[in-house]
Amino acid sequence: MDICKLSQDIQAETEKIIVGKSDRIRLIIMAVLANGHVLLDDLPGVGKTTLVKSISLALGCRSGRIQFVPDMLPSDIIGMQIFNQKTGDFEMRQGPIMTNLLLADEINRAIPRTQSALLEAMEERQISIDGQRFSLPSPFLVLATQNPVESESTFRLPAAQMDRFLIRISMGYPQPEEERQMLRSLGDEIPFDTVRAVTNDAELVEAQRQIAGIYLSDSVADYIVALADRTRSHPQLMMGASPRATRGLYRAAKAWAAMEGRDYVTPDDVKFLAHPVLEHRLILKSSARFSGKTSSKVLEEVLAQTEASPSLDTLDHEG
């Protein structure tokens, strides 16, 4: 399978709807190919849900959507056992989580108890109902959107859930020319029916299996570990990158290399992906926040202070 071409086809279909966000689209495609969950964090109305829906259509997988609200219960997500009076037995009523691509819209509008219903599903690809475990379809990916925590009626996602998202990205406002193009091309209604499915769930699983075989040298692996370790000892961070973050960056770098048409990972792949993969997992100390520091600035310092040198076998692959 040509993963480079597959990623280009998915992007081309998505860009029938989304204007001027090629870099964000590529990062989401990378996360899908790396079997990782995505969090889109931005202001209302900038196109988060539209982007996720467009990519879902291009992927051609079974998808479901949950609109998170404060009075939602965990059973509204994972399902429940219901007693059938006619048969005298309990029957399983599946929740919308039983799908390949779950659009969790405005995830931080739900109370923490409801948000936690996704923890097991995101990590283990299974759910538990009344002591019984049910496997989720493969692949299973959460593409979530959230509004800034300063917005009304929102709840901050716990660190355990943030750590389960492979990447967090923001859309940002479009440039004036991009917005004019959007108005001219989309008109009064978003033409989702023009987006063609270019793959399916079976092909995605095969692509993920193929990406696992991408070569990553010991020196690049050491670079990933060094970055994570430096965040854990940084004096301005209360919490650094977890081992789950290290594994996420490892998988993301392999997927990115495959999308670039290579069968090996370079340190530049790791460096490029460090911000979307690591930044949202870092928690600043109060003193650092008061002094105007941000997780992004701290991560820039970590990247500047951590050297990476490609190994001889990586150079052989490049040659």
TrEMBL record:
Pfam families: AAA_3, AAA_lid_2
Protein's name according to its UniProt entry: MoxR family ATPase
Similarity annotation: Belongs to the MoxR family.
Residue ranges annotated for the ChlI/MoxR AAA lid domain, each copy included: 230-301
Molecular function GO labels: ATP binding; ATP hydrolysis activity
Keyword Nucleotide-binding: yes
CDD domains: AAA (cd00009)
UniProt keyword annotations, A-Z: ATP-binding, Nucleotide-binding
Residues covered by the ATPase AAA-3 domain: 37-167
